[in-house]
Amino acid sequence: MTKMVAANKKTTGAEIRALCRSSDFNHQTSGLAPGFVQCNVVILPADTATHFETFCRLNPRPCPLLASSDQPGAYQLPALGNDIDIRTDLPQYRVWKNGQVVEQRNDITQLWQDDWVAFALGCSFSFEEALIDGRDRNQKH
Question: What's the burial of 41, exposed, middle or buried (CB within 10 Å: 0-12/13-18/19+)?
């Protein structure tokens, strides 16, 4: 089980992505890259992606859609950064088939399909920094 603790290490999103891309980082990212948005990623075939996008737009609180692939098969998310490769830049990927996790990988380049669409959804890791900062300011020393 992954331990959910905020780290003090000051890194950028690009630095974390580079570590993931080289397989030198495969842990959760809570507390890393303060000041940068963090996302959950959903990747779906194009024939269901439109339905998912509509669901997110109709339900922005539980599914805050921050970015999506420009077209099926595109693995970049330029709305979030110029150097993002969604196939390699996450610490780990859960591969689901028929509603079950069948595999965890550090890279999905070999699995990538020409009809896949990637979605980046807002994540609680993005605002936990503010919660931690608020707690620290309000604590009595």
Answer: middle
- Would you tell me how many other CB atoms lie within 10 Å of the CB of residue 77? 22
Structure tokens at 76: 């970049």
Distances (CA, A) of 112 to 10, 76, 85, 107, 141: 32, 12, 11, 10, 52
Q: Which CATH number fits domain 13-138: 3.40.1640.10, 3.30.460.80, 3.30.1340.30, 2.60.300.12?
A: 3.40.1640.10
Question: pLDDT, tens digit, for every residue of 11-67?
Answer: 777 787 888 788 777 777 766 766 777 788 999 999 999 999 999 999 998 899 999
Report the DSSP pairing between strands 100-105 and 116-122.
unpaired
CB atoms within 10 A of CB 46: 15
Task: Please give the distance of CA 80 from its chain centroid, rounded to a whole number.
Answer: 11
Tell me the whole-structure pTM to 2 decimals: 0.77
* Coil vs helix vs strand at 43: strand
> Cα–Cα distance between 129 and 38 in angstroms, integer?
11
